[in-house]
Amino acid sequence: MKAGVYEPFSYGADEIVISPREYLRYMGAGAESDGTLTTLIDDCLKEVKNALRIRGVMRTSDVAIDAPTVRFSFCGIESGSLSKNLSGCSSAVLFAITAGAGIDRLISKYSAVSPSRALVIDAIASAAVEGAANKLNAAVKERYGKTKPRFSPGFGDLPLDFQRDLLSFTDAGRRAGVLLTATMMLTPMKSTTAIIGICEE
Question: Considering the entire predicted model, what is its pTM?
């Protein structure tokens, strides 16, 4: 089975959409915010945008499905949820993306002196990673045509420890600075990985 080339990428803060709906959801806040919260959000948005260093890497793999087993070019994995998601696909894009270590430092800094500010920054940074993943998703769709919704380790019955294989396949540590802790947590903290199935015509 074939594996594609490594494709590192990066986005500037002005190239992604940081959705207010998303960061308010992460904060647990309603759509209507009072003046104090609005001012705090505006200040935190500026700090997050200054600290963002969005990097990532993607790589394509052939896919063969014998449900519940999904076979990539680099490994096989049993997951009924993933095999259903990739039904009709003979290839997929696997990627890792991060907002960068600067965001972690910003959250750590404010956690000690202003927990409320740290919470808002955390939420905005999560929305920023989502926005970056959405931008990549759109680029993959533009290149290949119809695609499946992206699917991440930990969704459904796809084991979280599939992160290890995905990061190894994309060489994300060296090419994007995305690593995995012993407890299967991505670092930098505001990072994500996923699989995007490419539909056959």
Answer: 0.93
